[in-house]
Design a protein that fits this description.
Layout: H1 2-7, H2 12-56, H3 66-74, H4 84-112, H5 116-144, H6 148-171, H7 177-198, H8 200-203, H9 210-249, H10 251-282, H11 287-304, H12 307-322, H13 327-336, H14 338-356, H15 360-384, H16 388-413, H17 419-438, H18 441-458, H19 460-471
Length: 473
Amino acid sequence: MNIFRNKLPKNLFRNIYYAFLAQSISLLLNIVMSLVVPKILGVTEYSYWQLYVFYVGYVGFFHFGLNDGIYLRLGGEKYKEINHSLLGTQLKLLLILEITISSIIAIVGVNFIEDSNRQFIIIMAGIYLVLANITLYLGYIFQAVNKTKVYSISVLIDRCFVLISIFILMFLNIQQFQFFVIVYLSSKILSLIYCGYLGRDIVLAKWFNTGQAIKEMWINISIGIKLVIANIASMLILGSGRFIIDKIWGVTAFGKVSLSISLTNFFLVFIAQTSMVLFPTLRRIEKGQLNKLYFIMRGLLGVFLPVVFLMYFPIMILLTKWLPDYKESLHYLILLLPLCTFDGKMQLLCNTFFKVLRKEKILLVNNILSMTLSIVLSIICGYIFHSITLVILAIVISVAFRGILSDIYLAKLMSRPIISNLIGEIVIVVIFIYSAWYLSLGLAFLIFFASYIVYLIINIKTIKQLSRYVSQR
């Protein structure tokens, strides 16, 4: 199949290699964060740490789409050919904006929040906002111009520093979450220095005409704001339920649920970074070839994503012994693991192809609909039924709704029938949830393993087609 030989640039697989290397370190860090840190800090301190992580997850929205707009407009361009001076001026204007927002957040935190721990979290999140968005600005440029290696190494620097620092904190028996927050900020400073040095053509470029730079920023924001709002809506699909859990049941319950969500993120970090690597490459591919790539990627994801459910059973055995205080969290993992299938496909397949085809508006609409569904269901389940389990289920249903809706629309664009595939994927998810929730661990494993074998047999034709395509590379 010539699509692999002739259409994809030689450095694509090198870029994916570095991206996966960076995300492998991130995976190791996530394992330490999710399995070791809660054992060191204890339930309350770990819950405050998770609250900080939760808040900083939203700071990326305060560039208001500038980074995303640049990423979309520069996708497929060459670094030497872009306007360094214009991009550098926008960077400096963004820095001024971020410092202003950070200062406002700090003032609000000091004057309107009584809990000293929450005050600290808000102030540190404000500082992180500046560092993260400036680093991301440069990182998005590197990725858009196919210099993914640079961005991946910056992630490696960030994650390795945090990982080493955590082991030092463990050795010193530090049990205050504030030290972990400071480490988190320090790692982002190192990452920014690296990106700034390699992007010095942009950082140190002469000041461009202010009026034209602001006009260019407005164009980028007007393009990227759709993605920002879509991302906000996407995060609030999970976030609305977590806000309600924190509000009704407190920070400890929030921390326990967050642990399960962190465990599901182990797998999703790979998917997210691969999506970023693929975007500039797919922008250069003809629409006819995109159709073939869509078939390959969707087939692979549909067949192999359910493997993550098999991982639940050994994970449950090991973690129950390792983190006995979080047994309830691990039970919630049964409901949250389907996020790996629905959200994994959404990130790698739907998000990537919507961006390549410039269908950001569709992505925005689907995310807003799903966010609205999540908020309504979470409020009902939290305040009327007063059930954490139902709130979590509401989150998963909303994520599934978004994934299915986007999948159907994208398949229609690509003229590919997928309804029968979707039904099979939903059935295998339902079998896992029902068996793992109601049956013993051993019996649930046997039932799901047998079901997955049947699922593979039903999809044997697709597997053979995919094998032929891949073997022709």
